[in-house]
Amino acid sequence: CIKANAKSCGECIQAGPNCGWCKKTDFLQEGEPTSARCDDLAALKSKGCPMEDIENPRGSKHVLEDREVTNRKIGAAEKLKPEAITQIQPQKLVLKLRVGEPQTFSLKFKRAEDYPIDLYYLMDLSYSMKDDLENVKSLGTALMLEMEKITSDFRIGFGSFVEKTVMPYISTTPAKLRNPCTGDQNCTSPFSYKNVLSLTSEGNKFNELVGKQHISGNLDSPEGGFDAIMQVAVCGEQIGWRNVTRLLVFSTDAGFHFAGDGKLGGIVLPNDGKCHLENNMYTMSHYYDYPSIAHLVQKLSENNIQTIFAVTEEFQAVYKELKNLIPKSAVGTLSSNSSNVIQLIIDAYNSLSSEVILENSKLPKGVTISYKSFCKNGVNDTQEDGRKCSNISIGDEVRFEINVTANECPKKGQNETIKIKPLGFTEEVEINLQFICECQCQSEGEPNSPACHEGNGTFECGACRCNEGRIGRLCECSTDEVNSEDMDAYCRRENSTEICSNNGECICGQCVCKKRENTNEVYSGKYCECDNFNCDRSNGLICGGNGICKCRVCECFPNFTGSACDCSLDTSPCMASNGQICNGRGTCECGTCNCTDPKFQGPTCEMCQTCLGVCAEHKDCVQCRAFDKGEKKETCSQECMHFNMTRVESRDKLPQPGQPDPLSHCKEKDVDDCWFYFTYSVNSNGEANVHVVETPECPSGPDIIPIVAGVVAGIVLIGLALLLIWKLLMIIHDRREFAKFEKEKMNAKWDTVS
């Protein structure tokens, strides 16, 4: 919202769906531009703009016409006119659109039972269709009987086509123009398209008129069927189309000419897509080219005509490709003599009616639409597939969720109308789009207001919208004065050469502060000398997260102080377990104890490394009062009566941790080297209580006999071990000496012999 740099409320609300405009007159700080009034709602509220002063118009939808879909069974006694049958709901609504904010509505479609059908049979009467014509002559009454199973209101018509009546499509010799067939064949003159029978409910009349038709002929293989389809689509009055289901059966055994092929006959004018029937004959085939496929698609869609291509097996592939280009069309395989045409029409109709596809008219610039379908059996789709539902039986109801979004406002802000309809049906939903491009407060603006420097602008939505040639927050300057050096002097602080503290630009003698990349960081002040992001920090946060930065100085929240609001005035962290602040040994500063006596430490000045502990401090008094001995035995009554003493039988009976009063467990030695146990506690009234085990634990004396016996036994064993070692060494020595003697003795014998 900030980056949109909106100069008015209208520009602001077009910046995004979450942008609001503060119309409070004194909302802006000094140096802030008018565009700072535009921000997201939470930011405006945090900056002090009341909700009632925030312009934030929202889009809406309003249904104008909402008739329920018709529930009607075939054979029902009531006979409704086609226009009284409703298959789509709602029929008319108004959407108020704000840029970027989608409006959603639900569209319901139900294929009505016993819905009227108009069927026009368009037949190729070139010579190759001779045997087919014989079977079509009885089509009227036979098809009427079959269609009675689907609808009680059925009408049928008939038309025929051959080819353009120019070379090289037909032979233009007089004889061939009279009878284009060869031999004894009696053929009618060639023609482009003829409306033989407008739509009628009289099947016998269909049989009668079709029975009078004769085959014609042409030279080339492709036929001029596209000319005929165009005239059937656009000549609604002559054909007799009603606003009901419109079916066009196109029967042929050949291909087709399309746009551009007319050049072969010297025809270069594009098809104009208009009706040119005179006496039920198409009279401009020699003047206009064949229509293109896209042109046909447009006209068939505009006139809600569903096409059934009944073609022979040979051209199935071609017409299936054509079907893919023409929405709501079907292809059936025609037998060589058209004997299966009735079943083909029934099957194709069932196929077409089992699918509903929504289409919308051309959208205004900047408007987008998206669809989500809710079809049978829980099948849901979005994007392109969200436009359609398949496998629908007559009487089934499906729903579509449609989102309409405006991405920009029209230049003049005028209303637009779009229409949505199911392909092949005449019913449609009309949607009137109204664009929210201005704020309500703009209509309440005061032109040439005195608040805008002597009437140089319109005062609206809390700000001035300047007249042409005027600028400034209050329109106080003309555009000719903007670059004046005299104006720059008003934008410098005293004894400074910097314009707007290098944080803005001088416009009309006033500083307009520049914007930061982070939209939450703002420059302000007469000379843009202030900001809300250069205050002292604590723990990485501006003002420690405990205050607001205003003009580079922290304004602390209650219970906080300090340059970075990092000093808490809350004393609860300093409260000791005895209910005293810092145990009475210090002062609480910024939520931390500052101990006045340096020998005390800890969060609440409870620790003293050089002090005697509670146990050592009181052991002499406990010893003299409990056992009548110790260093204070003589002065016990004077020095040791400051606590209440209770004797207990054993250590298990001493008070245990968990009681409300602070408790110390002690184990000390008395003058007889016996251990005695006691606890020391101070209650909330300041009274000291001592519980002492009445019997000390004295160590027993040593057992002399075992000690002496052990020492003697040890000496004996050590002596024996030494004797054994000496004996072993002597044996080893004697053996060595003997071995030496034996060796010398042998040497003496050798000397004797020599």
From TrEMBL:
Disulfide bonds join C9-C19, C12-C49, C22-C38, C181-C187, C235-C275, C409-C666, C437-C441, C452-C464, C461-C500, C466-C475, C477-C491, C506-C511, C508-C543, C513-C528, C530-C535, C549-C554, C551-C582, C556-C565, C567-C574, C588-C593, C590-C636, C595-C605, C608-C611, C615-C624, C621-C698, C640-C674. PROSITE patterns: I_EGF_1 (PS00243), I_EGF_2 (PS52047). Keywords: Calcium, Cell adhesion, Cell junction, Cell membrane, Cell projection, Disulfide bond, EGF-like domain, Glycoprotein, Integrin, Magnesium, Membrane, Metal-binding, Myogenesis, Phosphoprotein, Receptor, Repeat, Signal, Transmembrane, Transmembrane helix. This is Integrin beta. Residues 8-439 form the Integrin beta subunit VWA domain. The keyword rRNA-binding does not apply. InterPro entries: EGF_extracell, EGF_integrin_1, EGF_integrin_2, Integrin_beta_N, Integrin_bsu, Integrin_bsu_cyt_dom, Integrin_bsu_tail, Integrin_bsu_tail_dom_sf. Residues 1-50 form the PSI domain. Its main location: membrane. Belongs to the integrin beta chain family. It is a single-pass type I membrane protein. It comes from Nipponia nippon.
